[in-house]
Amino acid sequence: MKNKLKYMALCLSLLIGVGACSxxxxxxxxxxxxxxxxxxxxxxxxxxQEVIVSRASTAENRLNDLxxxxxxxxxxxxxxxxxxxxxxxxxxxxxxxxVTVKAITGEAYIYALANLNSTIYYLDDADKNKLTGIDxxxxxxxSLTRDEFLAIDFKRQYGNASHxxxxxxxxxxxxxxxxxxxxxxxxxxxxxxxxxxxSESNVIRLYRILAKNTFTIEAGxxxxxxxxxxxxxxxxxxxxxxxxxxxxxxxxxESSYSGMAGKx
Length: 264
Known about the structure:
By secondary structure, the protein is an alpha+beta fold. It is 17% helix and 32% strand. The chain has a single domain (28-213), classed as Sandwich (Immunoglobulin-like), CATH 2.60.40. It has helices at residues 2-32, 125-132, 146-151, and strands spanning 36-45, 65-72, 77-84, 97-104, 106-114, 153-155, 158-160, 163-165, 176-179, 186-190, 196-198, 203-208, 229-232, 235-236, 238-240, 253-254, 257-260. Strand 2 and strand 3 form a beta hairpin. The longest helix is centred in the first third of the chain and has 31 residues, at 2-32. Residues 56-183 form the Major fimbrial subunit protein N-terminal domain. This is Fimbrial protein.
């Protein structure tokens, strides 16, 4: 009987110890969530590995404005950073460009966008304001959600039936987008001195969301030919600003697009 009581007392003490450890672990995990930290992110402009010859000029690869967005697991914006290039302070291209962004610990989705003022293709004014009209010091005041962010489109023509703005290919600003971890969630934990630690690489690879195609039409030997017009077919009407969020094979296209030779 005494031995049974000893065993029961031993088991009870073990259960109490396990329970105490579990409570400590739960309290520790809960304390790690939603803690404000400072992230260090790197941004690198990438070239498409499938393109053998790039015709993009230095100006067309330039970053004129660069934006970083951090969303939590619930899709709420928890971090934002904006960089704007000037003549005296350009944004390094192709990078990497290191920036610090406020965020909170826990599961997160991290994205970057660039050249949102491009007039080659356009963003709606309302969408552009959602993306750029964010107060870095009061990110919680923004109503932008991750679902809204991923749903934003760019358009080849902007406006309404009474006033349509056509694209300006001479603009030279190509919209770009990128994300961490292939667009999947990462985990942010608290490091030392208020720094945030990301579970994956902190390098965001930016890609141009539009391709540049250059056509050269010349007459062959002994042939006289003066082109006056041209016509392109299946020109994209628009697409998703963030790469990988929609099936491009189902995108809207114009059946044809006509232009004058010598003009772009």
